[in-house]
Design a protein that fits this description.
Belongs to the complex I 51 kDa subunit family. This protein is α/β, with parallel strands linked by helices. About 45% of the residues lie in helices and about 10% in strands. The C terminus is likely disordered. Helix 15 runs antiparallel to helix 16, helix 15 runs antiparallel to helix 18 and helix 17 packs antiparallel against helix 18. Strands 6-5-11-8-9 form a 5-stranded mixed β-sheet. It has a 4-stranded parallel β-sheet with strand order 3-2-1-4, sandwiched between helices. Strands 7-10 form a two-stranded antiparallel sheet. Bound molecules: flavin mononucleotide and iron/sulfur cluster (SF4). The site of iron/sulfur cluster has 14 residues, from helix 16 and helix 18.
Length: about 450
């Protein structure tokens, strides 16, 4: 198939992309068809109006740095990279009066299993990231920025480079933007595919050309970031949300979602659904509605469990998940999990949870950077224990040992990868302990037996 045929197929089915009309009130993915990523189409969709607005280029007085930050605070925008930290508050930490160089960095490393939203944003709407970064740079008095893009999506990096060229030629980047005193140089840089380079300080090390390993914090990047200078780092989707907020106001964005959970969020829905893909919906949308948009559980099977926010978020059983809404507070307080990066992995009743955890644990053992002993050794222990249980060689003591190893990793490492490896283990043991016990006692998965029974009789 050539590119044109692939685009047509995506447009017709919406599968694995954002080209479908199964979004609710979209802001970032609105009106995209795969071909209209260029600057003229972006401007026709209202693009760069927010940058013009803050610089006073549309007849208005413009916005001060404080006004931009206040608007972002009012919007309730929370970082879309995983932790959900309030964006306006983060921007206010930047020491604006610092006399030397300050940096702005976009985190487009997107390595969390299940997450595939940032690549669609950069490929099909790259100018919204550029405009969002320019607005952020203006608000924090920053003149140089970088977008660090995951190394395994090189065509996305090339697309972003092409968009940067367009923005420079149109005068939206560079010196004295639109005749103002604001100057901002933005560059793209690509990594080489290591998950750990998504952790913000490892990303900075990699951007500096060093081995991508996390730094001890504090100091935090706001005071000691890229090349030791004050730096603000945000996720791609976070920057992409900013132009809409400036155009329409902080209150309008907040009202799109829920209190403390403003705006829309892009969810990458994968696993056992009819239509896997990216879905942009308001924060607070019921999970049941999101599942419906994604075509429901594949083959009409029964929902068993959901990993609601990327592979590091604890699994939530079906019954509980169907009562939750898709926002930071509901998933954390009522579901005991995390919204994380918004990667929703749906599992039907044929899935063996021991097997699922073995796959996840292998990933974390593989991606540990090896600096801290609890993570370097512990992630390997977790994987080997789950692997032997899965293969019918588990011991009765393994379940308590798994819980103990996970507990000893958590909170004892330089970065959160250790926690990310431990949390899925604890989540699986909390909700699906009986599957681990069954496999240890009977040397075979109870789920495979059940699934066969369903197939035989169904
Ligand atoms: C192991 C690990 C991997 C991460 N990967 C990503 C990533 O791929 N993209 C991302 O934006 N944030 C990632 N983060 C979170 C970043 O460290 C950081 O919090 C985020 O980029 C801040 O942006 P935000 O405030 O807009 O969410 C990761 C964190 C950890 C611990
Ligand atoms: S927790 Fe793991 S990934 Fe993070 S710094 Fe330590 S060894 Fe590296």
């Amino acid at each position: 198939m050539n590119v044109e045929q692939i685009l047509n197929q995506f447009q017709a089915t919406g599968v694995e992309s954002c080209f479908h009309d199964r979004h609710i009130n979209p802001q970032i993915y609105a009106g995209l068809n795969g071909r209209n990523w260029g600057i003229q189409d972006y401007e026709a969709r209202g693009g760069y109006a927010a940058l013009r607005k803050i610089l006073g280029k549309d007849g208005g007085e413009g916005l001060t740095q404080d006004q931009v930050i206040a608007t972002v605070k009012e919007s309730g925008l929370r970082g879309r990279g995983g932790a959900g930290f309030p964006t306006g508050l983060k921007w206010s930490f930047m020491p604006r009066q610092f006399p030397g160089q300050k940096y702005l960095v976009c985190n487009s490393d997107e390595g969390e299993p299940g997450t595939c939203k940032d690549r669609d944003i950069m490929e099909y709407n790259p100018h919204t990231v550029i405009e969002g970064m320019a607005i952020a740079a203006y608000a924090m008095g920053i003149s140089v920025g970088y977008n660090y893009i995951h190394g395994e999506i090189f065509h996305t990096y090339e697309r972003f480079e092409a968009a940067l060229e367009e923005a420079r030629a149109a005068g939206y980047l560079g010196n004295n933007i639109m005749g103002s005193s604001f100057s901002f140089q933005l560059h793209a840089s690509h990594g080489f595919g290591a998950y750990i380079c998504g952790e913000e300080t490892a990303l900075l090390e990699s951007l500096e050309g060093k081995k991508g390993q996390p730094r001890f914090k504090p100091p935090f990047p706001a005071s000691f970031g890229l090349y030791g200078k004050p730096t603000t780092i945000n996720n791609t989707e976070t920057f992409a949300a900013v132009p809409w907020i400036i155009r329409n106001g902080g209150q309008a964005y907040l009202e799109c979602g829920k209190p403390n959970n403003g705006g829309t969020k892009i969810f990458s829905v994968s696993g056992d659904v009819e239509r896997p893909g990216n879905y942009e919906v308001p924060m607070g949308t019921p999970f049941a509605k999101l599942l419906e948009l994604a075509g429901g559980v594949r083959g009409g099977r029964q929902l068993k469990a959901v990993i609601p926010g990327g592979s590091s978020s604890p699994v939530v059983p079906a019954e509980l998940m169907m009562k939750l809404t898709m926002d930071y507070d509901s998933i954390a307080k009522e579901g005991g999990s995390m919204l994380g990066s918004g990667a929703v992995i749906v599992m039907d009743d044929t899935r063996c949870m021991v097997k699922a955890l073995a796959r996840l644990s292998y990933f974390y053992a593989h991606e540990s950077c090896g600096q801290c002993t609890p993570c370097r050794e512990g992630t390997g222990w977790l994987w080997r224990m789950v692997d032997r249980i899965e293969h019918g060689q588990g011991r009765a003591s393994d379940i308590d040992m798994l819980d103990s190893v996970a507990g000893n990793i958590m909170g004892r490492t330089i970065c959160a990868l250790g926690d990310a490896a431990a949390m899925p283990v604890r989540g699986m043991l909390k909700h699906f302990r009986h599957e681990f016990v069954h496999l240890i006692e009977h040397k075979t998965s109870m789920v495979n037996a059940d699934a066969t029974a369903v197939k035989t009789h169904g």
